Amino acid sequence: xxxxxxxxxxxxxxxxxxxxxxxxxxxxxxxxxxxxxxxxxxxxxxxxxxxxxxxxxxxxxxxxxxxxxxxxxxxxxxxxxxxxxxxxxxxxxxxxxxxxxxxxxxxxxxxxxxxxxxxxxxxxxxxxxxxxxxxxxxxxxxxxxxxxxxxxxxxxxxxxxxxxxxxxxxxxxxxxxxxxxxxxxxxxxxxxxxxxxxxxxxxxxxxxxxxxxxxxxxxxxxxxxxxxxxxxxxxxxxxxxxxxxxxxxxxxxxxxxxxxxxxxxxxxxxxxxxxxxxxxxxxxxxxxxxxxxxxxxxxxxxxxxxxxxxxxxxxxxxxxxxxxxxxxxxxxxxxxxxxxxxxxxxxxxxxxxxxxxxxxxxxxxxxxxxxxxxxxxxxxxxxxxxxxxxxxxxxxxxxxxxxxxxxxxxxxxxxxxxxxxxxxxxxxxxxxxxxxxxxxxxxxxxxxxxxxxxxxxxxxxxxxxxxxxxxxxxxxxxxxxxxxxxxxxxxxxxx
Length: 495
Fold this sequence. Notes:
CATH superfamily of the largest domain: Fumarase/aspartase (Central domain)
CATH topology of the largest domain: Fumarase C, Chain A, domain 2
CATH class of the largest domain: Mainly Alpha
Distance between the termini: 67 Å
Number of domains: 3
Shape: elongated
Structural class: mainly alpha
Helix content: 55-70%
Strand order of the largest sheet: 1-2
Largest sheet: 2 strands, antiparallel
Strand content: under 5%
């Protein structure tokens, strides 16, 4: 007997009487970044949406036209005046809802996204006389549009421009804000002693601020790498040889024309490519962001653990959350859990991008065309996670009472400094200091040690008086070494 899924009483399909959500207008988002979490990720739409990519393609096509005519690379081509250049540059500047719809209609006919942009621009050249009072050569410049370009000449430059914009204007400021927030917390809590946990067990104390400084420093290093990203670009024809260029206009210095154009876009010129710019810079960038994500993931899990230990107490007003749906005493650390999950999704996508974009069969295949459309998704989940981490950190306060209680009940952690003091004393000439590790292990291993136990042990050592006095003054709360001073090694927060 075969199973008929349509007969299931649990089906929510339209033919079971449920309205089809797929036809509702405006369209319902399939993914959470454009639905539930739209507010946090919306800034990326200006750079990494399909509409933003098309706007960037239009920008590249127009700048190439302006560049060629300005450089006198095309014998007989008219020179554009300031009004004509301003008109051309106003086209992508005013690219909005109506233009997006028009371009979609053209693409439905061409079945080619870059060709649709070319035709869209030619339409605007046709309307230039009306906009400029009739005195313009723009309407006669159809054949200069997209000249010497393969689609990837436009695409690679458009992607470089929008990715650079997304990183510099959206992602980096958000990530740097997280770094600065941790650095501020580190400085504010530099003197707050805290019991360490190595392998989940009590260990030599630190300060809360020093641990926050470690995270801030790690993020700072990774953000420096990302901030130094080279965004490469090429415009050299169908297989990267300037073949058609050299045949059509042999007297032009095409590598120089290409280089000045790419560098004029704020990019690094790549002279050695196939039909595509090889995307190695993208692979480096996505690997660096995925590494940032993993550091941020560590921050999320450590804050979660500190909250479970009550080292951080959640500020209910700042968290703005109901907590458990059934257990009213709970306030769930949802910001950190949300960040953790989104960082995992982001890293998985970015690592996939980094590993697949560097391979293209021979001189060209189209796998990158689909892959690159997910750049915004990868960065979007990272941006969402950063937003949640910042909110989560802003919503917790150190809990000194619990920090002090745990330190006061963990005198065994002084076994390390006492052992090392014994060794140093023996090296300096004291007697009776032998086997310090074994003697401390006998005192502390597998048992709870009290303050009195530790002081009795110190007094029975026969250690030099100045060392004994120093050890007797030592408490778990004061045994933090140079932790507070180490926070000063944090560099000034980057703007």
